[in-house]
Design brief:
Distance between the termini: 19 Å
Number of helices: 2
Strand content: over 45%
Order of helices and strands: EEEEEEEEHH
Shape: flat
Oligomer: single chain
Number of domains: 2
Number of strands: 8
Structural class: mainly beta
Length: 112
């Protein structure tokens, strides 16, 4: 989990909550590859259409998106001269989290 509960600020005399990125400095053993980031779709629906040759086709329209960022962690072998990599993925939101909407009960609006 990348975010702590929240970070509190006072703006114009009012409490404002923002996400607390407690892992923003990363982990010393992981090697991020932001140049290989990709959009990951999930949920959604399918629709049919005809291609340029008149054939029926089906395409997927994702309902939500996240950004997948690969991170490689070196894994050393035991009593061998081998180092492999373990590829882990971090999912970043395409939008920020709105704590105000969340706090007033608008859970869907908090992540829109």
């Amino acid at each position: 989990y990348e975010f702590g509960i929240f970070d509190q600020l006072i703006r114009d005399g009012w409490q404002v909550e923002i996400t607390d990125k407690w892992l923003k400095s990363g982990w010393p053993w992981e090697i991020p590859h932001p140049d290989q980031a990709c959009f990951v779709g999930f949920g959604g629906r399918t629709e049919t259409y005809r291609d340029e040759h008149g054939n029926y086709r089906v395409r997927w329209i994702p309902g939500e998106h996240a950004i997948g960022i690969p991170h490689d962690v070196p894994v050393l072998g035991y009593r061998v001269n081998t180092c492999d990599r373990l590829r882990l993925w971090r999912a970043d939101a395409t939008e920020s989290f709105d704590f105000y909407a969340f706090n007033i009960g608008d859970y869907y609006g908090a992540v829109e």
